[in-house]
Specification:
Strand order of the largest sheet: 6-5-7-1-8-18
Number of strands: 18
Shape: globular
Structural class: alpha/beta
Distance between the termini: 74 Å
Strand content: 15-25%
Helix content: 25-40%
Length: about 400
């Protein structure tokens, strides 16, 4: 009888089977530059050719509203569902979020008009090369200088410099956060607590000038998905509320306006069992040679101890390669996961090994990340459920 060998491991997923974001033609990073180009902002390119110019543009970003989740819930979102044919300039197609499909990365892509490899927020948590410690880019902990971390101007800043009225309408809690500073600053920030107040104020800001660029945001749908899952009554209730908010804003658009409803990512519910949730903190094979575990459950950055990167890559491919796309840092960069290029300052923020989920699985860390490990709904990878987001359009 033939003896089993290491080669009996199933073949890992080929990296060229990962569905890349449409950087440069149809990703979140292309949205604001396209709108700003239509308002004659210098240096901006209309990268999404399907979008017709408008004098007044409003982007309403609903955290966690994936394309597939919206299609699956027409009864809860009748108004949004009626707009599905308008997506991406009437093509009925979605945008792609970018990799990883997570809030900090996506908001930076939206606001700067740059892919993650350029703006430098390539994950939920990433290693800070200056300190060697993990840095949470959503909560900005531990603190680091925001403008060193992300030095590029935002599209709002460029638009304001070109004479466009720029405004952000969001929760007052986000007024002065580092993420807001590096991703969404420029023009006027207006904080309002209720969704209804935000919609009314966004419409008023659109009408405040002949050329306006307005951004507004709603987070609670995402929170419901993380805590209860996208199959929950709580999530569906939030979707019903969001549907009413969008209709409220659409009905108040001033003349010559375009409203775009989009999202930062979709979401996947992951079952609570050992088959679907692989606990890094209890798996000696996955821990071997690993100095830091970054990212999040479906989009991991793995930082090896010096000299161990090749061994970690081999082990992770053997253990997880059927369920995750597993790439070295250079392979992920060459494949274009983070965009067409990666800035030198960003290179070492990316893991020595990058793991992107293909199946409905997570790499949890029950000791290091107790709260995140309990989330029902998750996101981050390149699957359609996470990566595809709507770009619904209403014009006046």
């Amino acid at each position: 009888m033939a003896q089993p060998t290491a080669w009996d491991h199933p073949e890992p997923l080929a990296l060229d089977t990962a569905p890349l974001p449409e950087y440069g033609t149809g990703s979140l990073a292309d949205l604001l530059p396209t709108l700003a180009a239509g308002m004659s902002v210098p240096g901006m390119t209309a990268a999404i050719p399907e979008l017709a110019p408008a004098d007044r543009n409003c982007v309403f970003l609903i955290d966690g509203l994936g394309w597939e989740q919206l299609w699956a819930h027409p009864d809860e979102a009748p108004f949004l569902t009626s707009l599905l044919g308008s997506s991406r300039g009437g093509t009925g197609r979605p945008l792609t979020a970018g990799y990883p499909a997570t809030t900090a990365t996506s908001l930076a892509s939206v606001g700067t008009g740059l892919p993650p490899g350029a703006h430098g927020l390539p994950g939920y948590t990433v290693r800070d090369p200056a300190t060697g410690a993990l840095m949470n880019q959503l909560r900005w902990q531990p603190w680091t200088d925001p403008y060193t971390w992300q030095p590029y101007p935002t599209v709002f800043q460029l638009a304001e410099a070109a004479g466009v009225h720029a405004a952000q309408v969001s929760s007052p809690a986000f007024a002065s956060t580092p993420l807001t500073k590096v991703a969404l600053s420029g023009g006027t920030f207006l904080g309002r607590l209720t969704g209804e107040d935000r919609m009314d104020l966004a419409a008023g800001q659109l009408a405040a000038a002949d050329r306006s660029l307005v951004y507004t945001y709603y987070a609670e749908l995402d929170g419901a998905g993380h805590r209860y899952g996208v199959a929950s009554d709580t999530w569906r209730g939030q979707l019903m509320y969001v549907d009413r908010l969008v209709q409220r804003l659409a009905e108040q658009l001033p003349p010559r306006s375009a409203l775009y409803v989009t999202a930062d990512h979709g979401m996947v519910d992951v079952p609570f069992d050992e088959q679907h949730r692989i606990d890094f903190d209890e798996d000696w094979e996955l821990r071997a040679g690993v100095a830091l575990l970054g990212g999040e459950g479906r989009a991991r950055h793995v930082y090896a101890v010096p000299g161990a990167a090749d061994d970690v890559l081999t082990c992770w491919r053997e253990v997880l390669g059927e369920q995750f796309w597993i790439a070295s840092r250079d392979e992920a960069i060459e494949a274009g996961w983070f965009g067409p290029a990666v800035d030198e300052r960003v290179y070492a923020r990316i893991g020595d090994v990058v793991a992107a989920a293909h199946d409905d699985v997570l790499i949890t860390a029950s000791e290091r990340e107790p709260k995140e490990s309990l989330m029902v709904g998750n996101h981050g990878s390149m699957t359609p459920a996470e990566q595809l987001v709507p770009l619904l359009e209403v014009r006046s």
